[in-house]
Specification:
single chain; 397 residues; mainly alpha; 16 helices; membrane; Chr_Tranpt_l_chain; Chromate_transpt; transmembrane; Chromate efflux transporter
Length: 397
């Protein structure tokens, strides 16, 4: 009987790995598109969960900081085969883009192509992609004047005082005002979910999350270790991201560029390249870590930036029902989501726009790429290839 259960468990893990890896190779388009791919594969085709359970899992991923699509994938794996299922699902979905970005970073540093025209084209791709993301998210997250005001506050605050601590402060203040302004917000939720995780395990995960967040800076100062400092920067960035992968850009930029660990040009070139690969945008960390410290650095950075999301989703699953039905918590979330828009616009101006749009021809290319993405609905990889070609051609003009 035990052997039968082990065989069944192994088959479940293998199935999760194969399905999630295929999604990791084919899921272009960012977090929202990923959720669509997941719904088609896990809900409609394989019927691993029903519509309501999937919607609740997506709601939880939006509530927590971190990469929403990755957290949904982890949650599906957990519901299918426990904690090992969550780990397997995460590895399958993330590995293809991690490998691709590590190879790109090695090529970038090994051949000194940082000043190539196509690299500048990738930076202009970042302008088009982030502009498109801002417009799409703003429609949903700032539909009324109160939330627009919170977004403007976040924009001004993060533009005038540019630091990771400013962004954290803005998010906390926005949560407070959201709590005050939207505490009467009410939405009926009926279904309750059951997750195969003991609450004791969840509490351990939450304690580990907060322990690492507060102890890593102390350990960094005591040891002076480059690797600890690097792990701390990526872990903190992964811990404080509300709103999806695009928001990790300003956090990582503030952590890495002012310290001199990576040049702004290499940073933006990698961000543009990240749009060319499928899978979660957080794998941008694999590129950054590789530029900083080789392929080993790429793996460490990937682990550090995703670890908070993993600990939080495992820690929150058993407690989600009571949290999501609290209207005051919902109000705070609404305020945070509005602040995310302001932070995105701030990051869009600096460093993305100021470092990429240097001449009228740059703006012309950005306009073309944005139109291809927003109006012609072309796949993101076509936008990236077009941007790289356009950047190369501009050097001939």
């Amino acid at each position: 009987m035990n052997k039968t259960n082990r065989n069944r468990g192994f088959k479940s893990l293998l199935e999760i790995f194969l399905v999630s890896t295929r999604l990791g190779f084919t899921s272009f388009g960012g977090p929202t598109a990923h959720l669509g791919y997941f719904h088609e594969e896990y809900v409609r085709r394989r019927k691993w969960m029903d519509e309501k359970s999937y919607a609740d899992l997506v709601a939880l991923s939006q509530f927590l900081p971190g990469p929403a699509s990755s957290q949904v994938g982890i949650g599906i794996g957990v519901m299918r085969a426990g904690v090992l299922g969550g780990i397997t699902s995460f590895i399958g979905f993330t590995l293809p883009s991690v490998i691709a970005l590590i190879l790109f970073a090695l090529l970038l540093t090994g051949f000194d192509i940082g000043n190539a025209g196509w690299i500048h084209g990738l930076k202009i791709v970042a302008v088009a992609v982030v502009a498109h993301a801002i417009i799409g998210m703003a429609k949903n997250l700032t539909p009324d004047l109160k939330r627009k005001a919170i977004a403007i506050f976040a924009l001004i605050g993060t533009l005038l005082w540019q630091s990771a601590f400013t962004q954290v402060g803005v998010i906390l203040i926005a949560a407070f005002f959201g709590f005050l302004l939207f505490k009467q917000h009410d939405e009926v939720e009926e279904a309750r979910l059951n997750f195969p995780i003991a609450k004791r395990v969840s509490v351990i995960c939450l304690l580990l999350f907060f322990s690492l967040l507060f102890l890593l800076p102390v350990i960094k100062e005591v040891t002076g270790s480059y690797w600890v400092a690097m792990f701390d920067s990526f872990y903190r960035s992964g811990s404080l991201v509300f709103g999806g992968g695009h928001v990790v850009l300003p956090l990582l930029e503030q952590e890495l560029v002012p310290t001199g660990w990576i040049s702004e040009e290499s940073f933006l070139a990698g961000y543009g390249a990240t749009q060319a690969v499928p899978g979660p945008l957080f794998t941008f960390a694999a590129y950054l870590g590789t530029v900083m410290k080789g392929w080993q650095g790429g793996l460490v950075a990937t682990l550090a930036v995703f670890l908070p999301a993993f600990l939080l989703i495992l820690g929150a699953l058993p407690f989600w029902d009571s949290l999501r039905n609290n209207p005051k918590i919902k109000g705070a979330i609404m305020g945070v989501n509005a602040a995310v828009i302001g932070i995105l616009i701030s990051a869009f101006y600096f460093p993305i726009w100021t470092s990429s749009i240097l001449a009228p021809v740059d703006f012309a290319l950005a306009t073309i790429l944005f139109s291809m993405l927003a109006y012609w609905k072309l796949p993101p990889w076509i936008i990236v290839v077009s941007g790289a070609i356009g950047g190369a051609l501009m050097t001939l003009i």
